[in-house]
């Protein structure tokens, strides 16, 4: 065997080893891609189930929200009536305070007038009694 033949044999063996390693690598890659494909299918099925459940939950939430909005609209007049009642009570309190003030003022005037009237009547009686004696 000549040097060129030995070099060719070494190159052929190196090429054969390279082809075997590439073949093994590609076989492992095919197996891995198969597993990835299976995982993606499983995940896709799971995502479909999750999407359906999410859709059902959102539909229920929308129904519940509509029900809550309807009930809130129903009780809104109650709160408005309570607010109106509070305003009316406040106005009534203010009117009562005003009336109480007026009654108090009139009572003071009446009391003052009564004292003056009594003094005047006493003076008038005393004057009449004196005049009748004379």
From TrEMBL:
InterPro entries in the record: UPF0478
Keyword Transmembrane helix listed: yes
Keyword Transmembrane listed: yes
Transmembrane segments: 6-27
Keyword set, alphabetical order: Membrane, Transmembrane, Transmembrane helix
Stored PANTHER family: UPF0478 PROTEIN YTXG
Protein name, per record: Methyl-accepting chemotaxis-like protein
